[in-house]
């Protein structure tokens, strides 16, 4: 008989390519991954034996009989095992996903495959005696025995095992794997039938190649679209399936579940336990909303796509689960999550073309900052808040690009003489649609989107330039304060850029004051703040503690920071004068400041009564609309030139 081995050669070539390109595929090999690697090597080895068999059979007469017998016996012994490795891989994969209670099925399957294979091997050895599989006749010709197709039947039985696993556990397997791998048994059965019909064409390797190709394809797609830890489809996969569903006109809900402060879990229990928590969380959430699809959207963000009618019940289940602790790997911890949901496609006429992902990201940030730990469904009010924020972000970028940000200057008045002691620089931004936007609104957004450094640098440049212009006109150069943001102390590059800029502008020497707030101590230690202040202090830059008396204020900061001025928040003055309930506090602070040789600046002086009170308690400096609103550059320069003085009586 003449065997045709060309399909086998092609299959061998394909498997070799897969073997080479999968060399650096694994980060960390699991048992299953190792099995795949063994499978690839084994398949290549089997191809070699197979081709060796073809060669020995073709030249049987020229080769000693015992060599022919050994090679062919080896061929029968090892060849079907390739298929079993592949089926083993599939079984291991499936039982990683199936509930732990099903592991008994995995064991029984492995035992069944192992025992049938062992019986088959006995058969292969007995063949040397009885020739049921093959034998060589008197002329040394290869003759097929009556059970020559036995390995094919064995493979068929084992394929049936693999198929039953896929059918039995289909609920736990992700649809992509199921889709890719289900082609394998179908095609294999066809190939094996073809093998029985055309025994002279060796096709079993081709069947293997198809199987390996399926698994490899799954690997590659998995690498691209699945999250390693949770095995959930990742953000990229979510994005592409979201757009594809929208294109098809599907209606559904997307629920974002964002774990709050998950860093604390990692910090307390370590990264490994943190990972275990994320894994447990994702698999439980997945089981609660089986009809939906869960994605890992980011580190501690998950997205659930469900039908609109099931949205509420899913959210309810998730919230209920979050109310009890998570017992994972010997630890017990409570998890909190902010949950938001959007029904898609968006029906609001104005927003129907809005990008759902951008909307979701804004919505998440909004919910995290204002409704942390709760569920927020999407509605028109939220849409307006998000739209406004988006407009502010756009305006911020445009203003920076077009240099349309303005700086205004508010006088800080000496309450003993009425003279202007210094000015505070304040940013102004206008938007065609929203008109003037308060810095109280756009500064936190600039901080959030990471452009606050650019804004501070812009203000400093404008302030230094106006001081230079005044100096060049031989006018007195006033001290001007620049507001500092929390993040600046941890931005080394910005700090050195600012210092270099100030040093480069001699007119500003000793005339720049930075206004810092106590929130810097949330991210930076006291010692670190002192160290970072020092080079500025050495170059005549002063620091003021702004908004003292709000949020968390600490007397030790007042006492221990190298300060000449402290700014009292306007609420302190307003409450004192209006209700009289903090009279004692402002007076006490005034006394402490005097002892420390620090001058208090009281913000928010709006009325004569407030001014009278401040004068009575001996406050040094005041800032407020009673004297002046923040001034545009021209008015500010005019005031400086005229040495403007306010009447205090
Ligand atoms: P802040 O640093 O405490 O600035 C003082 C705010 O109080 C200014 O509001 C000022 O216009 C306002 N103000 C002064 N006197 C009175 C008064 O008598 N009555 C009332 N009702 N308000 C008074 P503005 O300019 O809207 O700034 C708000 C906040 O925005 C500032 O508070 C500051 O935290 C931030 N900000 C403004 N400009 C900048 C800047 O250039 N950089 C940074 N990082 N933040 C800035
Ligand atoms: Mg300020
Ligand atoms: Mg203030």
Rg, nearest Å: 38 Å
**Which regions are unreliable across 5 or more consecutive residues at pLDDT < 50?**
none
Biggest sheet: strand arrangement: 10-11-13-14-15-16-17-18
| Biggest beta sheet attributes | 8 strands, mixed, barrel
Question: What is the fold-level CATH name, i.e. the topology of the largest domain?
Answer: TIM Barrel
Number of helices: 23
Number of domains: 3
Word description of this protein:
The chain is an alpha/beta fold and 649 residues long. It has three domains: 6-225; 235-378, 2-Layer Sandwich (Alpha-Beta Plaits); 409-642, TIM Barrel (Alpha-Beta Barrel). A hairpin with a 3-residue loop joins strand 11 and strand 12 (435-437). Helix 2 (31-58) runs antiparallel to helix 3, helix 3 runs parallel beside helix 5 (150-168) and helix 3 (65-97) runs parallel beside helix 7 (204-225). The longest helix has 33 residues, at 65-97. The relative contact order is 0.05. Residues 546-547, 567, 569, 603 line the site of one magnesium ion.
Short description:
With about 650 residues, this protein is an alpha/beta fold. It has 23 helices and 18 strands.
Structure keywords:
single chain; 649 residues; alpha/beta; TIM Barrel; 8-stranded mixed β-barrel; 23 helices; binds magnesium ion
Task: Outline the fold blueprint.
Elements: H1 6-21, H2 31-58, H3 65-97, H4 103-130, E1 134-136, E2 142-144, H5 150-168, H6 175-197, H7 204-225, H8 235-247, E3 252-259, H9 262-269, H10 271-288, E4 293-298, E5 301-306, H11 311-322, E6 326-328, E7 331-333, E8 337-344, H12 356-370, E9 375-377, H13 380-402, E10 406-414, E11 420-431, E12 435-437, H14 439-448, H15 452-472, E13 479-483, H16 492-503, E14 512-516, H17 520-523, H18 526-538, E15 542-548, H19 555-560, E16 565-568, H20 570-579, H21 583-596, E17 599-603, H22 608-617, E18 621-623, H23 633-641
Parallel strand pairs: 8-9, 11-13, 13-14, 14-15, 15-16, 16-17, 17-18
Antiparallel strand pairs: 1-2, 3-5, 3-8, 4-5, 6-7, 10-11, 10-18, 11-12
Helix pairs in contact: 1-2, 1-7, 2-3, 3-4, 3-5, 3-7, 4-5, 5-6, 6-7, 9-10, 12-13, 15-16
The chain binds ligand C2E and magnesium ion (2 copies).
The site of one magnesium ion has 5 residues, from β15.
């Amino acid at each position: 008989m003449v065997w045709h081995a060309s399909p086998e050669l092609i299959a061998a070539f394909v498997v070799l390519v897969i073997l080479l390109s999968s060399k650096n595929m694994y980060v960390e090999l699991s048992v299953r991954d190792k099995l795949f690697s063994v499978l690839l090597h084994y398949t290549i080895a089997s191809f070699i034996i197979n081709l060796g068999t073809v060669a020995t059979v073709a030249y049987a007469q020229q080769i000693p009989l015992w060599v022919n017998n050994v090679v062919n016996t080896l061929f029968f012994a090892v060849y079907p095992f390739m298929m079993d490795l592949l089926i083993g891989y599939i079984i291991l994969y499936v039982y990683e996903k199936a509930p732990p209670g099903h592991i008994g099925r995995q064991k029984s399957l492995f035992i069944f495959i192992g025992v049938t294979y062992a019986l088959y091997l006995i058969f292969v050895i007995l063949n040397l005696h009885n020739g049921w599989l093959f034998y060589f006749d008197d002329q040394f010709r290869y003759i097929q025995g009556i059970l020559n197709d036995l390995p094919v039947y064995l493979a068929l039985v084992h394929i049936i095992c693999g198929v039953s696993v896929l059918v039995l556990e289909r609920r736990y397997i992700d649809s992509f794997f199921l889709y890719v791998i289900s082609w394998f048994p179908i095609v294999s059965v066809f190939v094996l039938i073809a093998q029985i019909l055309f025994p002279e064409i060796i096709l079993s390797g081709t069947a293997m190649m198809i199987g390996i190709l399926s698994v490899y394809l799954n690997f590659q797609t998995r690498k691209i679209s699945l999250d390693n830890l949770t095995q959930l489809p990742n953000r990229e996969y979510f994005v592409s399936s979201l757009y594809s569903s929208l294109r098809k006109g599907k209606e559904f809900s997307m629920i974002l579940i964002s774990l709050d402060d998950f860093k604390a879990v990692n910090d307390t229990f370590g990264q490994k336990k943190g990972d275990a928590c994320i894994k447990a969380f994702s698999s439980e959430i997945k089981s609660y909303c089986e009809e939906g699809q869960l994605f890992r959207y980011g580190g501690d963000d998950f997205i659930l796509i469900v039908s609109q009618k099931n949205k509420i019940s899913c959210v309810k289940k998730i919230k209920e689960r979050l109310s009890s602790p998570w017992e994972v790997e010997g630890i017990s911890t409570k998890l909190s999550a902010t949950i938001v949901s959007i029904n898609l496609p968006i029906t609001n006429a104005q927003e129907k073309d809005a990008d759902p992902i951008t909307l979701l990201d804004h919505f998440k940030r909004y919910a995290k900052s204002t409704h942390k730990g709760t569920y927020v469904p999407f509605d028109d009010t939220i849409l307006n808040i998000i739209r406004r924020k988006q407009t502010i972000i756009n305006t911020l970028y445009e203003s920076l690009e077009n240099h349309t940000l303005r700086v205004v200057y508010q006088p800080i008045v000496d309450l003993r003489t009425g003279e202007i002691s210094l000015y505070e620089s304040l940013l102004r931004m206008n938007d065609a649609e929203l008109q003037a936007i308060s810095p109280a609104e756009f500064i936190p957004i600039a901080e959030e989107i990471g452009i606050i450094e650019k804004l501070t640098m812009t203000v400093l440049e404008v302030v230094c330039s106006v001081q230079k212009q005044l100096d060049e006109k031989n006018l007195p150069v006033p001290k001007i304060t620049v507001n500092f943001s929390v993040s600046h102390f941890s931005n080394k590059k910005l700090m050195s850029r600012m210092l270099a800029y100030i040093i480069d502008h001699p007119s500003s020497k000793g005339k720049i004051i930075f206004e810092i707030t106590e929130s810097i101590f949330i991210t930076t230690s006291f010692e670190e703040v002192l160290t970072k202040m020092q080079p500025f202090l050495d170059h005549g830059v002063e620091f003021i503690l702004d908004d003292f008396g709000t949020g968390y204020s600490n007397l030790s900061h007042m006492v221990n920071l190298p300060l000449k001025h402290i700014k009292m928040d306007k609420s302190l003055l307003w409450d004192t004068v209006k209700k009289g309930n903090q009279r004692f506090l402002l007076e006490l602070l005034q006394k402490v400041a005097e002892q420390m040789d620090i001058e208090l600046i009281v913000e928010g002086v709006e009325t004569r009564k407030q001014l009278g009170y401040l004068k009575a308690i001996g406050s040094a400096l005041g800032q407020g609309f009673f004297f002046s609103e923040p001034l545009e550059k021209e008015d500010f320069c005019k005031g400086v030139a005229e040495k403007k003085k306010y009447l205090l009586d």
